[in-house]
Amino acid sequence: MTQTLYKTIKGKAVLIFVWITFSLITGFSMAEIVTTGGNLEQFYNRGDFFPIYLDGLVKNGQNVSYEAEEDKFTVTAEGAAFQFNSGSQENGWKYLRVNLLHLNIENLKVQLLYYDRSGNIVGEDFFSMEAGEHVYDITAEAFSGAVMVVNEPVGTTFSISAFEFSTEPSEKNRAFPMAAFLGTLLSLGFTALLFYIAGKKKRHIEWYRFVDGLQAGYMEAGNRIFQLWKPFPDKVQSVIRIGIMILMFVVLSFVNVYNFFFDETWHPFVTLFLMACILLLAFFYMEKPLQKRDWRNLLAASWVVLWLMSCVSDFFVTKKSPYYGFYGYLMIFTVGFLLFVWSNLEKRERILWEICKALEGTYFLCVLYCLVFRPHIDGYRYKGFYNNPNPFGLYLAVVTCAFLCELNRYIKMGKCKAAYLGLHVSGLASAVFFLIKSQCTTGVLAFGCVCFLWGIGNLFAKPREERKRFFQTIVFLVICYLPVSLILQWGIINLPGMLHTQIVYPDDADFAWVQEYELPIGTVTVHAAENEESGVPADSAGHMLDKIFNSNSINGLLSGRLYHYKTYLRDMNLLGHEKRAVVYGSSINSPHNGFLSYAHMYGVYILIPYALMFISYFVRAFRYQKRMAKATCFSFFPMAVCIVFFLENMMDNVDTPFHWIVWFIFVFAGGFLFQPDESNA
Amino acid sequence: MNKEKINRIFLILLTGLLSCLMMSMLYLGGGMNLKCFLGAEKVYDFPKEDLTKNSKGWEYHGDAEGYSIVKNNAVNKYRVGRSTGKWKCLYITMDKMNVPVLYATLEYYNNKKELLLEQPVELSLGENIIFLNEELPFYRLGIRIRDSKGTFFSIQSMQARSGINGFTPKRFAKAMIASGTAFLLLFAVGMLWHRKRGGREQKEHTGNPLPLSVLQNIFCIPGNFFGAWIKGRETKKQRQWLLGGSFFLLFLWILICNATGFGEEETYRYFALVCVVFLVLAALLMWEKPFAEVNWRNPLALSWCGLWLMVIVSDIFVDAGNKFFGYIMLFATGFFLFSWNQTENPRRVLQLMMWALEADFVPAVIFCMLFRQKKTAVYYNGIFQTSEEMAMYALLMFGIFFAEFLDVLKKKRSLGVWLISGSGAAVSLYLALCSGGVAACIALAVLTAVMFGIKIRHLLRRENESAKFRRGQAVRMLFTATAALLLTAAVHAMLQKLPETLGTDMQIEDEQLISRLSSEELTLYQLLLPEELENAVSEDTLEIGLYQKSYARMIGLVGNIEQIYVYREPVSAYNGYLAVMYRYGIYAVLPFLLYQIWAVHTALGNCLREERKEHLWILAVDIAYIAFCIGGNAQIVWNSPLVWCFFLINGYSFFRKS
Fold it and tell me: How close A220 comes to chain B (CA, Å)?
């Protein structure tokens, strides 16, 4: 009875969720189209624009100084000027939007000289700029660069929070909120009407037939190969499976470090390698002929719909590097096959155990590699085996999930060898050490959340012994942390130098944020991540906390990600894009948010299955953890991964298919949850 | 020896040959560039016009085929490549010289005609290799000859390269011999090892290979579901009509896309989607009973599958161009053929296909008569961009009508059938002759001879034929001949005049006009009809050898997509095998060639076994395609009905019930 009621409520809630999200997306998209004259390929029509960001102003300023802490420009000599060059052909920008703040005089008198590509002056304007946001008309026909001369005495101070040439007068559109509201209402009404009519006609779409057919295909392929398959003993198979996963992760790390993943020549090879690994993994998991499994659940449905929608987008929009097509097909046919094989396993818990072991194995190799080859240089954030501290931190956050599960073995069961416990406590301590060294805010936040849940779960555990063992583990962890961190600290500073084995990656230098910080500006580039307007010293121990609590703007807190979010939001359309949006004048920047990334890559409506996937993932992981908490110490793993990945996904680019170890772990743990657990907890 | 063994021998020999070719090219290229075996350097061949043009102090004498230097400061300037670029070597082959050594100065110019650098050079008889300043990008190159008035010389060829040319026939032959020997040794070792393992006693495989079996069983899943659903809704007659209709629409769609240019670049996906829809629909309409696996373990079917697998593999590595063709063929067309092979009467499907093509021919000819005027002195392009494509289409139709005509000769059929087949054959023959080049003429001659040759035995047989029957046939023949003649004359007249009279003549985008006249004659025509023949080129000026050399130079392992330019103009390969090797990788030609061999072999076998018009048509299509593949641009393209038919109708023989 309760189960039926739960299913009815869940079904209705999903329907309402889809209805509301669909209407919201439609309403906002319609509003953008109506108010800006956009179209289905570009909802928000801003025309052509050339924004100049703060770092551009600072770098190209002459006879002006910039105070990062006060966010002010000061005229230091006569002939103060800013130079802007779009580097492209002459553009017909007609408007200049400037937002001036902190002006210590009434008006800022400026002269603007416009240049064509050959450097010839093609126009000139004089403006008397007032504080606040204003739009000025440009008289030049077409130009590719400009010089703004500030005709004010020495000592004049001002801040510029927006500076943009554009073909449209203003970015702000006051009609938009109302249009969005009306559009949403209209869409809500229209879809409700459609639903009502469809309900009356009793037309029922059997969506599951597709999944059924898909499973039949998996069975056909799997069972035919299984006939030829001569499985090894179970233990050997298990070792092989863990080995394949470790191989995948290690290769993937080097692929990322050397930028092979997005390289057009290498990408097919990388994808083929990963597909081969996944298929091999699937075959090594097969223990009996495959049978159809019940995937009538929200997680499987949203997953299938998500990747089908990506296939639809791929059909209409040819993806160009760094976006790649075909991920949908690979997910449905290859990864789907693996998940189907998993659904057919009798003891599925060992999947989680093997994933954790693979993760730990990779991590062990990573620590060795870091100690021997990757020195920590004072004043820089530690990058580990990556060329950027952020992915390293994000990876570590997931590794900690595996170690927390391992600690659960002692806490829940109590039967655990001291060496085993010591090994995993040391593992967790080292992961935390590296996480702190990487100073990856997102990773630390994710780790904090998972730790909190893990702590709460164990703190209120029912048998008293469990609580006791939990406190023992905490104490042990605290005790272990000091020697482990000291050893590792010494190791990563001295060992590579002593052994002369230091490895420098081609892109290593670009990500050393201290160098960027030395610029006298409040840079907002995201790849350097933690460099923001608040001006926190580079190697400050309280870097992340300072950032969280002392940032003087949301953009500062988000390390400049707001610019990315805003740009990607402006660039949404119905069926997705060929390549990334242009942020800071180039299309190499990712949105640093999975939702925006998917919406941009595959079209706005993909957000519905994407969001549903996360919700159902969490719900299923939570229920699994609750049900299986006593049965397996790894029951916490899917939920922990879900939380870590979700948090990382909100602020970083972890959800790039087949790109990161973190992504694989998320997909594997999610795929594990596809099949309702039939075993008795 | 059974078919499979012969196929295996073919496969081994061709693989060996291609591997030797690959190794030799890699050796000559001096590296391990798998994308382009000979190295990815740029090569620019100077056009003949450049090597015969006059300039300040250089006078070209056509009769002596050489230059006379008539001033003491003579210079001739040449544009190199399509844009400013860096070049490493200049190869000049001097043909005739009245001095032992010619002292000249090479001058590098940018696109603003500014002199960048001067380089003194000495030219002697034979091939001269000049190392250019490879750091300096230039747009034009000048050859200045000072104080050499009265010198006579002839430049046979001139070539700029961004790398050193490692290719010489001698080196190539040596490399081929070495790699061939290595291959033979390996082969011998392999054979010995195979025999030692008791290879002869090994069990013969009879069923489908595993991937094919899996694919077929996957076809069964949606096929049985949707097929049963359609069968339950439509009667047999309705399904036949719908099947014919879907063929009609499929070929009409292909023709429309050709005429309008739809389906190129970005719109390709929509073109492909519609094709897939028609093919899948046709496959489902053919469903009669639950699908079961059919045995495709025969060389024809396996080479067909192998070809599309190669295309798919190439598509994975070559990230541009019209993708999905391999997937469409393997999955959609594969599904269609799978369904076709399960029908009780597969010949009926062929008949419907022929009917659909005939039905499409009528609007195509009407379109030509109304909108596409036949231009003087150039081959007729019809509804296509090139005359070659039109010739391919006309030959496809000629094959159908001629097969039908040969069929009715010994049968008592209504006059209508006689008139349709006879007139259709005449009109298509006329169109083929209007638009055909050498390849078309050869294809026409061969297919007519082969079809007639096969049918002649039957025609000469006179059993059970009454005098009345023969008289009736003669009268029908007379009627048909008259009607065909009249209709062809009418079509001819309309193609010449109607669009101009109605003012409806239209141009197809990027149309290529090729004339059968010599370049001198064409120039005269162009003076008379400047607008009509503005972009026409003479057949003589096509340097097919050079085009093929340019393609061969760029062959790689998994294919390339970049357009090949010769004399700064995009060119085709004029050989289907080369084009396939270039586009899809060197080994793609292996299944391509095997498919052709087995297609002709099977079609010929079918014709000799059963003299049916459908069998004759399949053979005609195979011959026409292969002829255009050898001497034209028939390869794996989506926009030609002949190509579609070639890859579709041979599926008739993939599986035959004993």
Answer: 6
